[in-house]
Amino acid sequence: MILGIDASNIRGGGGVTHLVELLKAAKPNEYGFEKVFVWGGKLTVDKIQEKSWLEKVEEPFLNKGLPFRVYWQKLLLSKRAVAAKCDILFIPGSSYSGSFKPFVTLSQNLLPFEAKEMKRYGLSWQLVRLLLLRIVQSKTFLSADGVIFLTEYAKSCISKVIGKTKGQVRIIPHGINLRFDNPVKLQRKISSYTKENPFRILYISMIDMYKHQGNVSEAISDLLTKGFHLRLDLVGPSYSPALKKLNAKLDELKLKFKDLPIYYQDSVPHEELGKWYSEADIFVFASSCENMPIILMESMVAGLPIASSNFGPMPEVLQKDGVYFNPENPNSISDAILKLLESTELRTNIAASAYKRSKSYNWQSCANETFQFLKDTALLYKKKNV
């Protein structure tokens, strides 16, 4: 069989990471695929490792803006797939408007399907964009011959919006990049930290409306008033209105603290994040909307104790190996972090168990399950359409 992969909507972030790591670990021959074609823009295909069974095709239209990419997918992709004699298409970008059948798609963005989360943006272009994504992705999921969800939570959430899909459904989690793999950090009593050598709390994530960095900052200020020597590092790119809101919160807190030990670092190269993980004492993850929390998983493999949001799929991924809080409530966040500050034993135990759990999320399993599902879907479609 021959597999075609449409990377027209895969241009950066987690989508590119997923495709690169999936193909790096893949053994398509074991699942009956003799050839795999990937159509994408230059920045995407250049990141994909060369393989004897892989044909990377740079499409000029996919180096341009959204209208060109939509045109290519709707009018040219099906012709490319037919010419390549593909038996099935894989659409990891969640949106598909072409005519080729069968195809399997992958859900990677949950935000368009959680109305409460979208409301955080108010009347804005971002809200319009999310509503349009909901329409396009819903249509794609409903017409697909197979849909891959990353978590049970994502499957349940999207199914409540779009109803039952006609195609097969499979839960296949992402793997974790092992470049952040660290042994569990030796935990010290909170009394051993000083103003000059504070207990370091790390939160890596985009500054966005549903990430609640302002609430985390308020929780840290509450703990500072209790006499703890702490430092909070917020690391990640930003959505401008959310950053403005965060800065207003920090300005408010600076009225209470002359030297507020809360620092924001704009986005850093992914390969440099290991330094931030190694210098941290605990990790906080306060998102209220995730399809699959890759950053949370990276903190697990980094060997850090974790205080996590109890929203979305976070408890599904972290299970009992963290301390949970309501991300909308600064007091709840403060209470969860306090539990970690007061107990070196708790910090050590949950970090060790989270590290062990992280090993179940690997790219080899992800690749194996994905190619098995693609094979099953292709064969089922052929059987139904003989």
Please give a structural write-up.
It is built from 14 helices and 13 strands. It has 386 residues and is of the alpha/beta class. It has 2 domains: 197 residues, Rossmann fold, CATH 3.40.50.2000; 181 residues, 3-Layer(aba) Sandwich (Rossmann fold). α1 links the parallel β1 and β2. It is elongated. The model has no long low-confidence stretch (mean pLDDT 94).
In short:
By secondary structure, the chain is of the alpha/beta class. Helix content is 43%, strand content 15%.
Number of strands: 13
Count of runs of 4 or more consecutive helical residues: 14
The CATH topology of the largest domain is given as Rossmann fold
Content of β-strand: 15-25%
Lateral arrangement of strands in the main beta sheet? 3-2-1-4-5-6-7
The secondary-structure class comes to alpha/beta
Record the SSE blueprint.
Layout: E1 2-6, H1 13-25, E2 35-40, H2 42-45, E3 54-58, H3 66-83, E4 88-91, E5 103-106, H4 115-118, H5 125-143, E6 146-149, H6 152-162, E7 168-171, E8 199-204, H7 213-225, E9 230-235, H8 240-254, E10 262-265, H9 273-279, E11 282-285, H10 294-301, E12 306-309, H11 314-318, E13 323-325, H12 330-342, H13 344-358, H14 363-384
Parallel strand pairs: 1-2, 1-4, 2-3, 4-5, 5-6, 6-7, 8-9, 8-11, 9-10, 11-12, 12-13
Helix pairs in contact: 1-14, 7-8, 7-12, 10-13
Keywords:
Rossmann fold, alpha/beta, 386 residues, 13 strands, 15% strand, 7-stranded parallel beta sheet
